[in-house]
Amino acid sequence: MLKKSVAGRRSGCPVSVSLELFGDRWSLLIIRDMMVRGNKTFKEFLASGEGIATNILAGRLRRLEKAGIVITEPDVSDGRKLNYRLTEKGIELAPILLDMLLWGAKHEETGAPCAVMAEMAKSREWVLKETRRRWEVRDPAPILPKFGSN
Amino acid sequence: MLKKSVAGRRSGCPVSVSLELFGDRWSLLIIRDMMVRGNKTFKEFLASGEGIATNILAGRLRRLEKAGIVITEPDVSDGRKLNYRLTEKGIELAPILLDMLLWGAKHEETGAPCAVMAEMAKSREWVLKETRRRWEVRDPAPILPKFGSN
DNA sequence: AAATCTACTTGCAAAAAACAAGTAAATTTC
DNA sequence: GAAATTTACTTGTTTTTTGCAAGTAGATTT
Fold first, then answer.
1. How many structural domains are present in chain B?
2. Smallest Cα distance from B51 to chain A, Å
3. Which residues of chain A make contact with B12, given a CB cutoff of 8 A?
């Protein structure tokens, strides 16, 4: 598991605690998929293109659930499906993801179109507000398309 | 290693590319230590309290250096010391770290005093500007104290 | 009732991290 | 100026985590 810690009691600086929770290759990608691509089901996460293994995905979803970042609810129209949804705590990770997106687009070779990125950087507050609005009304339309080759 | 990739050619969305680089338990902590605690040397990183192993620290520093996030320069007054310093690309990770700090302080049990955090959240732009200023003039004074039990 | 689909779990090999010890180069101390 | 110390590592070894393939349980469609 994660780290020896006396039942529920956490300590350390806020950054360290955050990184213990989602400081890995996958957690934030899953959260991004829910936040800006409208992904909801296990299968959609798998097909998201980054190539996460099923056991890792299951593990991460469990961890995020336990941390109160996502919740699960059975799909009303198809009982086989389990829908994952961000909590309030989860949607508040949006600024981190947005900053990461902007940093990556600026400093690394990615498939992201410059014009779109420049626009997002300029209207940071609007993007965050719109992201939250879509989450509130359960708007499944992705706010961002897939970039690059994946 | 990181991931199979044809020499230098990177692909994928900006978030994914960013996470490939610093999506782990340690990289961002090292960067934070440089950014807000004024750490410069190998020894200082080790003593930073999170308990990173020497081989991991060495590996991460090498990776960050290769990515152009930090540079090394020998200490002028003590030739044994090697000073690590953030590059422009590195200091621009400040928004991510700040958002992570604020999120962690708000949602997880940490030792961070509420008053200080509320102040930082309100004056986000000022904090970022001040962080950059200190980097520019090489002000070694930490902008933040250590929180919690570490 | 059979076939299919979704969301997993299990087992195993490979990679990475944690831990302990050792080393080289520069520097301070005697 | 030789010995001891400090800094920044490297090199094993053990433990943990990840990646991959296969299999399974429950709901649904045919």
1. 1
2. 11
3. 50, 110-111, 147-150
Chain B residues whose CB is inside 8 A of the A104 CB are 13-18
- Helices (DSSP H) in A37-93: which residue ranges? 42-46, 54-66, 88-91
What gap in Å lies between CA B144 and CA B35, rounded to an integer? 10
Which residue range is the domain that position A62 belongs to?
A: 14-136
The half-sphere exposure of B16 on its side-chain side, counting CA atoms within 13 A, is 21
Residues 13-42 of chain A with CB under 7 A from strand C are 41-42
β-bridge pairing B82-86 and B70-74: antiparallel
Specify the pTM.
Answer: 0.89
pLDDT (average), residues B34-60 = 94
Comparing every residue's Cα with the C1' atom of nucleotide C5, the nearest one is: A80
In a domain, A48, yes or no: yes
Of A16, A35, A107, A36, whose CA–CA distance to B100 is shortest? A16
| C1’ C23 / CA B80, Å | 15
Residue B126 lies in a domain: yes
Domain membership of residue B143 (yes or no) is no
CA distances from A21 to A32, A45, B34, B65 (A): 15, 19, 22, 26
Q: Is B21 part of a structural domain of the chain? A: yes
Contact criterion met (CB < 8 Å) for B148 and A11: yes
Q: How many residues does chain A have?
A: 150
Domain with residue A78: its CATH number is 1.10.10.10
Residue A122 has pLDDT above 80, yes or no: yes
Q: Is residue B13 scored above 70 in pLDDT? A: yes
Residues paired with residue B83 on neighbouring β-strands, in sequence order:
B73
Q: Are A21 and A27 in contact (CB under 8 A)?
A: yes
**CA–C1' A54–D22 (A):** 12
